[in-house]
Design goal:
By secondary structure, the chain is an alpha/beta fold. It has helices spanning about 45-50, 90-100, 105-125, 140-145, 170-175, 200-210, 225-230, 240-245, 260-265, 275-280, 295-305, 315-320, 330-335, 355-365, 370-375, 380-385, 415-425, and strands spanning about 10-20, 25-35, 40-45, 55-65, 70-75, 130-135, 150-160, 185-190, 215-220, 285-290, 310, 340, 405, 430-435, 440. The chain binds zinc ion.
Length: about 450
């Protein structure tokens, strides 16, 4: 994805009471010098002024400049469903309601395009400058996103199960279509979930993603019933599900698998051991697993060995009542160095697309978590999950000037833990937002 920009002033300097290069590193009275949307230098304002004396400067007292927030898992096209399906609700029932609300094919282009635009506006409002966006309608969403202002990794969604397994190639082609790729949009693929993509199809999608070197996202271990479905094709996500009965796609050729969705993912190449892959000379692609609400110790080891990232969606976790079956294993994931980030999922299961609200929700439920880690979960970690860790998620030389300006009480001081705690506790709306040096709010 190119990150240069031509319609912003060639030189710009932004300065504030503090600048967060990343959540563990905050510089007092600092700024960033930007050329064509890319950061040339960050540091104390006095140093920048003497190094770049001719540069036009915007100064923001009472504020801190932070990296733009990164949402590794959402579905912008579902933004028309905000508040339409009240929670808490069981996941299988939610899917039934979701599909009842879907637009008819004659309306789909307008409904989906408007939903994407509203979702983008919501991201801008809350300082989210990059998203990993899952789309069933890449032909509509990507053209709506191509002109910005949001940076998007657009994961084309693929379902291929039972009697519909032959749809695989057409869906894969649509997902891999890169006509809309450019300054703002890059493409990825998203095999949907263990109850909508059968194992051999998953293997083909992984192989295609590796050969095209594009990132891959998948809903995995979101529901505890996935294991029963894989083993027997039965249960609340299988033959007992009115949605599956209506689809009428299960047949005797769907392979059964005993051992749960994470071992299934390993079996079909999604969660291969990263060291074995490296030894075989295969280049790893970024893999984002949405949710992973259920994982035991052995499964966590498989995840850790794979190098895949986890997009934990805490408010959606609550909306579907997963907390009643136990806590999300985020803490064990952190202990095992599994890259965990925070994400919102869609407005069909979450009240808004604010990552700071997501972080505040986590902190309210788990006050022992470090606020620095929480801020990493919405900046550096999701940037890594999407394969963009050399471009976004930090304010540092060589990175894109994707930044948010947040109010900062002077009494907070400049200690990174104190500032991150204030950000998470207050969850302020940004006063300004830039993507590639362009002000978008
Ligand atoms: Zn999702």
């Amino acid at each position: 994805m190119p990150f240069c920009s031509t319609d912003v002033p060639r030189w710009q300097m932004f300065a504030a009471d503090a600048l967060m290069t990343h959540p563990g590193d905050i510089i007092a009275h600092a700024g960033m010098a930007v050329e064509h949307g890319r950061i040339m230098a960050v540091g104390p304002v006095d140093q920048l002024r003497s190094r770049f004396p001719e540069m036009a400067e915007q100064h923001f007292p009472g504020h801190i400049l932070c990296p733009g927030f990164v949402n590794a898992h959402t579905h912008l096209e579902l933004s028309f469903l905000r508040g339409k399906i009240p929670g808490p609700i069981a996941f299988p029932d939610w899917v039934l309601q979701l599909f009842a609300e879907m637009p008819q094919s004659s309306d789909a282009a307008d409904v989906i395009t408007n939903a994407v635009k509203n979702g983008v506006a919501e991201c801008m409002r809350f300082g989210v400058t990059t998203v990993g966006d899952i789309t069933r309608w890449p032909e509509f969403t990507r053209s709506a996103l191509a002109g910005g202002p949001l940076r998007v990794v657009s994961f084309g969604e693929i379902t291929a199960l039972g009697k519909r397994r032959d749809f695989l190639q057409a869906r894969l082609n649509a997902a891999l279509n890169n006509q809309a790729a450019g300054e703002y949009v890059s493409i990825g693929v998203s095999p949907h979930a263990p109850y909508s993509v059968e194992g051999p199809a998953l293997q083909q999608v992984v192989t295609a993603a590796e050969s095209h070197q594009v990132p891959l996202a998948m809903h995995l271990a979101e529901n505890i019933e996935e294991g029963a479905f894989l083993a027997t094709l039965d249960g609340p996500l299988g033959r007992s599900w009115p949605f599956m009965q209506k689809l009428d796609i299960l047949d005797e050729h769907v392979p059964r698998f005993v051992g749960g969705p994470i071992r299934w993912g390993r079996q079909y190449g999604l969660l291969a051991d990263k060291n074995l892959k490296n030894k075989a000379g295969l280049r790893a692609i970024p893999i984002v697993l949405a949710h992973v609400n259920y994982a035991d110790d052995a499964e966590l080891k498989i995840l850790a060995d794979s190098g895949a990232s986890v997009a934990w969606c805490p408010r959606t976790h609550t909306y579907f009542g997963h907390h009643r079956r136990g806590e999300h294993p985020w803490q064990k994931m952190l202990e095992r160095s599994i890259p965990v980030c925070l994400a919102t999922d869609s407005l069909a299961s979450n009240p808004d697309l604010s990552l700071l609200h997501e972080a505040r929700h986590v902190w309210q439920c788990h006050p022992q978590i470090s606020p620095v880690v929480l801020m990493e979960m919405i900046t550096t970690r999701p940037a890594q999950a999407l394969g963009l860790s050399e471009h976004i998620g930090r304010l540092a030389a060589g990175f894109s000037a994707d930044a948010v300006l947040l109010p900062l009480d002077p009494s907070t001081g400049t200690d990174s833990a104190a500032i991150c705690a204030a950000m998470v506790h207050i969850a302020p709306e940004p006063a300004a937002v830039w993507v590639m040096g362009r002000q978008v709010k």
